[in-house]
Design a protein that fits this description.
The protein is mainly α and about 240 residues long. It is about 70% helix and about 0% strand. The longest helix is centred in the N-terminal third of the chain and has 31 residues. About 35% of the residues are buried.
Amino acid sequence: MKTIANDGNRQRAFTQTGLRLGLYPSIKRLYQRAGLGNDTLGVKICSGATTGSLGAALANPIDLVRVRLQGEAGLLRNGVYATGLHAGHGPRHAHTLRAFVDIFQQEGLGGLWRGVSANVARASLLSSAQLTTYDQCKQVAVRAGWLDGPRLHLCSSCLSGFVAQIACMPADVVKTRVQCGAGLFQSSLQCAAYILREEGFRGFYRGFAPAAARQVPVMAVQMPIVEQIRRRLFGLSYM
């Protein structure tokens, strides 16, 4: 089951993450040509929000399957979970591709886009906060005399990951609960209202520490690699 969950992670990385990172420079230039501003903070925020929203909307079925497979993962013994939240029960889905079929058969086409509004909100907040912080941090540092190289990319990436997790955490909590609990909440707004009523504002930041502990290292590796691929293979700058 661990392998199945990893399949979902890889598919999400190639679709949602690839779109929001890869399209950012092009979308930013498009907004600049449209007269929205010359590399202003507003243009950066809008560019990140646009690529994040687009990637999340298109890849929602993949993200949904990933969340559900990870939510029920555990140690399997004789076809039954011996650990985890579903201990004593067998896997609901035989493999990743089967999960798409099962969800479609049980919940219809709309079931594959369950939680899409929260997913789009999360990705929009994540992408705009991450890419804007990364972009702005680099520009400020270069003006202050830093060399635009791997050290700057690493520092900017770590800061962007932390800021991004703060920005997207409420939507991340709502998205996960809506996608994991099929039928428990009718909408993302209903889920958000429930969390606020039952747990208070702090409920939206439940699990922040492990989420940030994942997000910051991911960004620390992700953005410098993206920079090197664009520069060394294609001769392009990222921002």
